[in-house]
Specification:
Helix content: 25-40%
Number of helices: 6
Strand order of the largest sheet: 5-4-1-6-10-7-11
Number of domains: 1
CATH class: Alpha Beta
Largest sheet: 7 strands, mixed
Strand content: 15-25%
Structural class: alpha/beta
Shape: globular
Number of strands: 11
CATH topology: Spore Coat Polysaccharide Biosynthesis Protein SpsA, Chain A
Order of helices and strands: EEEHEEHEHEEEEHHEH
């Protein structure tokens, strides 16, 4: 299902992280997959979606790799200064949109730079499902595994009901003004926000979950990239 053609939306891609767990010589978004960087694949998936207005990529001030990214010359791609934490980078990109005159009620999708396997049908479903939603939401998937809550000593405290547990993915889709307020408030309070939905939840909102494919993985560790290389038919 494609989103309504009358539904414009904007994207934010925080890409200022260093990805230390990858143990690589460069940030993980600039590692190569099928002949292109992970970030190039990620941006290509977003730019192919009808209705997209602009993508704002938040970058480290001393990023030497971005000028070599294919989409750096695309007029639909803007940049913003990245921050120390994810929330800082996202807020900086949102400020860029506000400065450009984007309406506060516009839909903004935030997508991980290192999540290059986003299925076009998932992106279309997210947009169509949330088009008239009062809050917004995110792609997610129900847990397939038994989940354990552990204590400080590393021992199991409780087995959680996996039927009530979903894993959060991106994109996460919210109104520009409301998301900007949620992130600003969280940062001012010193709250730890691992994603945009958690910032919205902190203000009392309940984002909607839209089921997406489980192979929409985020490259965090070397084995994640190896999995994608196998799935895409790359030589290891």
């Amino acid at each position: 299902m494609n989103p309504p053609s009358s539904l414009p939306f904007w994207c934010v891609v925080p890409a200022a992280g260093v990805g230390s767990r990858m143990r690589a010589d460069r940030p993980k978004q600039y590692l190569t997959l099928s002949g292109r960087t992970i970030l190039e694949h990620t941006l290509a998936r977003l730019l192919a979606q009808p209705g997209l207005q602009r993508v704002v990529v938040s970058l480290s001030p001393d990023d030497p790799y971005w000028p070599h990214v294919a989409q750096a010359a695309d007029e639909r791609v803007w940049t913003a200064p990245g921050g120390k934490e994810r929330a800082d980078s996202v807020l900086s990109a949102l400020d860029r949109l506000v400065a450009a005159g984007v309406d506060e009620h516009a839909w903004v999708l935030v997508h991980d730079a290192a999540r290059p396997n986003l299925a076009p049908e998932d992106l279309a479903r997210l947009l169509a499902t949330l088009a008239d939603d009062p809050v917004g939401g995110l792609l997610a998937g129900p847990s397939r595994d038994t989940l354990k809550l552990i204590g400080p000593d590393g021992r199991v405290v409780q087995t959680l009901d996996r039927a009530a547990i979903w894993q959060a993915y991106t994109p996460q889709m919210f109104r520009l003004g409301l998301l900007r307020t949620a992130l600003s408030d969280a940062l001012a309070a010193g709250a730890q926000m691992t994603d945009e939905a958690s910032a919205m939840e902190r203000l009392g909102y309940s984002p909607r979950l839209v089921e997406g494919r489980t192979d929409n993985i985020k490259v965090t560790r070397p084995e994640d990239l190896e999995w994608l290389q196998r799935a895409w038919g790359d030589p290891l």
